[in-house]
């Protein structure tokens, strides 16, 4: 058993309380590789932003659970080396689907876990979340639970249709589970294809697809029922058109990829939404930079040559999100 505190990590409690009060949101960036980790830490340190580094089950399968844990420990030390004596870094499990997986992460030094029982019947979701909360709280680890179902595909998580969170359930759910934050479904979606063209309208001026707006009415109803309670948005990449265009220009094929407009996320950040998950945008930034580099330099074969611009491009994207969308910069 390793405590996250020994690793220099923090849980989400104080971070979320400040974010809800301050009208901003903490970025939760997924990571699988060293380059992503470096870019996240550099961006967080340069902007003085707290940050949640999150690992999905798929990331653990890809990179190895032990390696990722040591990378998170490395992230804390790296942040210190970059001139940040008390980095505010959370290591979070994204979409834990069993008690055993959550326990394993807590025992390995995670400071926060998500238990996603959103596909289960209501009472089973509560029972599973409560079991995880009871274990996690013994070690001061914070727990995110989910109510409502997001559409889209992300690693092992997928659903064809979304079910908005029912505001009438949130008080009962949060009280009975004891969770520290609640992921809700108000129209965000996993992956780079958040909406089909049929679900969108077309901007008559640019010809670009405009996704349906987020259900702010549901968010505000939830805020009224649970004043000050930390709310989480999953599937909140914006799928920047310039990255998609770069990928398509250099041999990729991502037709009609659509994300959540940044203005809507900016608005959500000012509410009780205090954690916004961004994964696809990092994948797009990395792939766009690598495709461009390799197309322009066909004789190069040293991975450092193309991973360096990939890392730079991800860092630029992370800083943009922190400063221009979530407003979590200059917070310590
Ligand atoms: Zn998610």
Distance between the termini: 30 Å
Which structural class do you get from the secondary structure elements? Answer: alpha/beta
Shape: globular
How would you characterize the largest beta sheet? 8 strands, parallel, barrel
Biggest β-sheet: strands ordered side by side in the sheet:
1-2-3-4-5-8-12-13
What is the number of helices? 12
For the CA atoms, what is the radius of gyration?
19 Å
Summarize the entry for a quick read.
By secondary structure, the chain is an alpha/beta fold.
What secondary-structure arrangement, pairings included, does this model have?
Blueprint: H1 13-22, E1 26-30, H2 34-47, E2 51-56, H3 57-63, H4 65-81, E3 89-96, H5 99-108, E4 112-115, H6 122-138, E5 142-147, E6 151-154, E7 157-159, H7 170-177, E8 181-184, E9 189-190, E10 201-202, E11 209-210, H8 216-225, E12 231-233, H9 241-249, H10 262-269, E13 273-278, H11 280-296, H12 303-326
Parallel strand pairs: 1-2, 1-13, 2-3, 3-4, 4-5, 5-8, 6-9, 8-12, 12-13
Antiparallel strand pairs: 6-7, 10-11
Helix pairs in contact: 2-4, 2-12, 3-4, 5-6, 9-11, 11-12
Residues 95, 154, 190, 234-235, 277 line the site of zinc ion.
Tags for this entry?
globular; 13 strands; 45% helix; eight-stranded parallel β-barrel; alpha/beta; 332 residues; binds zinc ion; three-stranded mixed sheet
Question: What features would you describe in this structure?
Answer:
The protein is built from twelve helices and 13 strands. The protein is globular. By secondary structure, the chain is α/β, with parallel strands linked by helices. A hairpin with a 6-residue loop joins strand 10 and strand 11. It has one domain (4-326): Aldolase class I (TIM Barrel). The strands form three sheets. An eight-stranded parallel beta barrel has the order 1-2-3-4-5-8-12-13, surrounded by ten helices. The chain has a three-stranded mixed sheet with strand order 7-6-9, with no helix packed on it. The chain has a two-stranded antiparallel sheet with strand order 10-11. The chain has helices spanning 13-22, 34-47, 57-63, 65-81, 99-108, 122-138, 170-177, 216-225, 241-249, 262-269, 280-296, 303-326, and strands spanning 26-30, 51-56, 89-96, 112-115, 142-147, 151-154, 157-159, 181-184, 189-190, 201-202, 209-210, 231-233, 273-278. The two termini are 30 Å apart. Helix 2 runs parallel beside helix 4, helix 2 (34-47) runs parallel beside helix 12 (303-326) and helix 9 runs parallel beside helix 11 (280-296). Zinc ion (ZN) binds at residues 95, 154, 190, 234-235, 277.
